[in-house]
Amino acid sequence: xxxxxxxxxxMERIQKEIDRLQDNNTSTETRKDDTQEKFTCNSKDxxxxxxxxxMNMDPGKYLAFxxxxxxxxxxxxxxxxxxxxxxxxxxxxxxxxxxxSGYGPLPQHSEDRTKRAKTLLGGVQQRKTSTMKEAEASKxxxxxxxxxxxxxxxxTLQVAHAIQQEANTAWHEETTSLRTQPRLGHATANxxxxxxxxxxxxxxxxxxxxxxxxxxxxxxxxxxDWKAGELKEWTGLWRKGCFEEHEWTHDxxxxxxxxxxxxxxxxxFKARLCxxxxxxxxxxxxxxxxxxxxxTSMRILLALACQRGWAEYTDDATQAFLNAxxxxxxxxxxxYPDGFRKKNKVLLLKKMLYGLHGAPLGWFKEVxxxxxxxxxxxxxxxxxxxxxxxxxxxxxxxxxxxITGKEQxxxxxxxxxxxxxKMTRGLASEYYGLEIKQDTRKGTTxxxxxxxxxxxxxxxxxxxxxxxxxxxAELTLPRLQGPCKTRNYTNITVV
Length: 495
Known about the structure:
Blueprint: H1 2-23, E1 38-41, E2 46-47, H2 48-54, H3 59-67, E3 82-83, E4 88-91, H4 93-100, H5 108-180, H6 186-197, H7 200-206, H8 214-219, H9 223-239, E5 243-247, E6 254-255, E7 257-263, E8 269-275, H10 295-308, E9 312-317, E10 333-335, E11 345-349, H11 359-374, E12 378-379, E13 386-389, E14 392-397, E15 400-405, H12 407-420, E16 423-427, E17 430-431, E18 434-439, E19 444-448, H13 450-459
Helix pairs in contact: 1-5, 2-3, 5-7
């Protein structure tokens, strides 16, 4: 098969060579009359017999034809003599005429070999086509395999949904029973809490990850609770006057809104509508730096409260950023969010929505304006989030306030603050992610991050275990007076 293909390619190459020689008037091997002998270049080492087959001549006649030429052609003695690659061999006139007329009639054995070559090539092509079809079919199977996996995933989610519904029911029943029971001591309450945490329903409900998108919230367990959280957030935004509906036009640069989900420590399903700030138009904001509270300021405030016997209060602003208005000279238009779509309608933001680059700074300006201009407090020059005056001290971390001072003055400041912003109030138990335990009788305040550590260990799947403390946490060491007595420390072993 390969010999037949090579022969055909050689015949084509000979024809091209002849045409080139005919068109080249400057060639030394060309003469004006048609009786000029033509030569071709041998592309590889070939015997005289093989060249004769290419020329469609008898090997003996072609050998005699070669011996008629002068030079090394006369040294060729037999048809098996090989002619090296690159040698010029003469082309008989009959071969030239056959080539001009379409290569002429080929010998019978050449036709048979050409047919066999075509048959073999056709088989190869057929096998190649079938292989390609099989590959396409396998691709189709691979494309269909995710559907099979998605069905299994849906079945698994349905089972998980049923389990979590039972867990949620157990959670509510247990919470109701604890509320109706009389108040118990700390030891009994801790024992009941530890026993409740070991129940399968509570544990399974506790370790459910929060959904990352609106679609996941619809497929995850507690979908109805997440939907209720979305409705509560959406209603609250409209009550705050956050949006203004407009008709959609092509000249408006549009932005998108995203849903974020978080289950709080008290079991509340919190859904928050945020703007996709990653694609916010740069022309809609300039300075976005917002001050942050220093941890040292919080420590000083707690120490001051312990020293003077003041109570510590925490106040959390609800939907804090929405209290800051958007600048009218930098409008932002957004599409309706998932779950509340409207055709050909868009929303104009009128408040600082979560996710906007300038939202934290806008909220802090509103807080500073209220505390300084309306309440008469003084902003610290060292920490911009610290305010003091009128026997009241306060620190602000984003939307969380920690306030202490004289009881009457503190009540007045907090009452005015709650009238300005919608807030939740209470004694300080947690702030800045830290647990605060105040003992007014002893005049002490303890700070702990136990909940944060437990949450991080659960996230990293690290088992919790008790560790022995080498000394009591609340041990008070006596203050000794007088000169130190000489002691021998040579026998002390360091462990």
